[in-house]
Amino acid sequence: MPDYRHDLQFGVFITPLAAQADGVLELARLADVVGLDIVSFQDHPYQPRFLDTWTLLSVVAAETTNVRVAPNVANLPLRQPVVLARSAASLDILSGGRVELGLGAGTFWDAIEANGGRKLTPGESVDALAEAIEIVRAVWNTEERRGVRHRGAHYTVDGAKPGPAPAHDIEIWLGAYKPRMLRLTGTRANGWLPSQAYLELDRLPAMNAAIDDAAADAGRRPEDIRRLLNINGSFGTDAGFLEGTPQQWAEQLAELTLATGMSAYILAADAADDLRRFAEEVAPATRELVERARGAPRPSPPSAPVRHEATAPLAAQPTNTPERRLSDEQAWDESTRPTGPAPDPSRTYTAREQAAGRHLIDVHDALRAELAQLRDLVEQVAAGSTNPAAVRSFINRMTIRQNLWTLGTFCETYCRVVTHHHVLEDRSVFPHLRRQDEALGPVIDRLEQEHEQIADLLERVDQALVALVAAEDDGIDRVERAMNLLTDALLSHFSYEERELVEPLARHGFY
What we know:
Radius of gyration: 26 Å
Number of strands: 13
Strand content: 5-15%
CATH topology of the largest domain: TIM Barrel
């Protein structure tokens, strides 16, 4: 099968457990921070252990700035098509064009029927899905003045007003495996979204061929249909598919892309470490291997007209550095920081362009909030350590120990997040901006230097914590001095980076 030469995309498929709602949101935010393209959730409205998918997608869209969100896949038998279309379009508007729509014909029919849906045969469910796609697209088409009318075997819509129009052309991805569903994908869908768990990989060429044949028969180009794949695996030393090292994952996914045309990989992941390794090691290595194998990119075919997007002045404003410094020491001389070219004051930006700079500030805001939590923990430990009554009470001593343990664990996590954020900038964002605008070179050089110095400051905090746990003299004072210097340096660095990069990111994006 051909390589359709789609750009590679990487995403995550998170289990929407209601009992772990905070963890689900944290993983979604992390996916946004580390540069994944898609955050998706399964949709089983009859499952009481799961959060409602559309409610969850809305919260995730509100708490992220860059990733696209999608149901993977929406349970059509319990999602009425007109309402589903308006839900997707509304969230697309509110998120700045970051919604895609995965659709499924339905499964677990007894559960669907128990929750008010109709129990359909496999053939009927495919017919219903075909009707629903027609209805959904008609609701989005606000250029058509007449009401939406559809009289089918499964849905009747009699004059529903179209709208709202989504902020961008939402893609419809179908979870398909059998011949009729594959044909429907080829004739009606923008993407094919099967799952590794439900197929043998050696079947991909034949299934792709079925989609391609159906597309050609319908007068469509097969390469206009994105090929996505839900994947699962574990990082280890096994030679099996997606069971080895991140580099082995990258080699296997690159080979799959070049041999079958699959180009968007969505990992089932409920652990932060797996998500990070996928985003920061597997994704860039896979992209590099595919780009190298493809060589020079082929010319892009003429694209369909793009809906005009409104523009506005840049809204995201850099955060100021606090006037009061906490440390007598300085990590660097701020007066020597270079500045980039002044932005054009008359230029305006689309919502999508503005999201890039806003994303940088949002990431920094999250790190600033965590830094405040870390400082609060240090203050709690300091207060407990100087209270004579604390050492006389087992409970108080356990509280202090818990504070010390929490402090060390939280610092380890925080330091890792800051480090990963800077690695992502150094390996992806900064080279991209340097290529796009040579005048930013001195600024990026300085930011990279400060990243190295911040790494040293984080190490100083870690060493101070080790000394504190070991009950060395001057332990808590040493931690507080290290924390104060780290705080001054980080807040100053974040402010400088935002001041210099928010506008260039609006012009050039992240990568």
